[in-house]
Design a protein that fits this description.
heterodimer; A: mainly beta; 6-stranded mixed β-sheet; 4-stranded antiparallel β-sheet; about 55% strand; B: mainly beta; 7-stranded mixed β-sheet; globular
């Protein structure tokens, strides 16, 4: 079965420093990949998505991610973070299982804490 | 265009009671998915409804049920509440079936249930 691994449960980083949040998924023939952000007491908001095409995907708020098929990774990056980026970030994979039913599978999340 | 609306936002119940949560999807979206979010378990998929039919179901006991109406609005019900049901319940809508290329999820802000 498909799985999504976010190895870092918490990532502290100073303001204006770069950040990378890691996401790996188990191999599949074809997947769609997503990053969501959740601010306190709110739902999840889509940051960016990879459906096909260019492996470098740009999203909102200056975030980008790169799809690496050989390493089955979809790491999220931002060159310079702001205090307002403090939130929880979820990687998600959509996979068509053997039953033919698509499933959205979420990672366990990474808490990004931006320090002044 | 209006986003996904969940009501109520907060509620407190006691063990043994039942609760009904409501979700109004984005106009034109035919799929509604429900998730339970807890600090220890992350996002757990409950079920997905598309055109009034349950299309996918997670591993939750029968106390958790849902339905979808002809206008795509959805409700979920939890009967005989247990302390462990305390969680943030998130609803997400999508144009097509969740996980397909038209199935990008748009989340509501959630209903926070506390069971005493």
């Amino acid at each position: 079965a498909q799985s999504v691994t976010q190895l870092d449960s918490q990532v502290p980083v100073f303001e204006e420093a770069p950040v990378e949040l890691r996401c790996n998924y188990s191999s599949s023939v074809s997947v769609y990949l997503f990053w969501y952000v959740q601010y306190p007491n709110q739902g999840l908001q889509l940051l960016l998505k990879y459906l096909s095409g260019s492996t470098l995907v740009k999203g909102i708020n200056g975030f980008e991610a790169e799809f690496n098929k050989s390493q089955t990774s979809f790491h999220l990056r931002k060159p310079s973070v702001h205090i307002s980026d403090t939130a929880e970030y979820f990687c998600a994979v959509s996979d068509r299982g053997t039953s033919g039913t698509y499933k959205y599978i979420f990672g366990t999340g990474t808490r990004l804490k931006v320090l002044a | 265009k209006a986003g996904v609306t969940q009501t109520p936002r907060y509620l407190i119940k006691t063990r043994g009671q039942q609760v009904t949560l409501s979700c109004s999807p984005i106009s034109g979206h035919r799929s509604v998915s429900w998730y339970q979010q807890t600090p220890g378990q992350g996002l757990q998929f409950l079920f997905e409804y598309f055109s009034e039919t349950q299309r996918n179901k997670g591993n939750f006991p029968g106390r958790f049920s849902g339905r979808q109406f002809s206008n795509s609005r959805s409700e979920m019900n939890v009967s005989t509440l247990e302390l462990g049901d305390s969680a943030l319940y998130l609803c997400a809508s999508s144009r097509g079936l969740a996980g397909t290329h038209t199935g990008e999820l748009f989340f509501g802000e959630g209903s926070r249930l506390t069971v005493l």
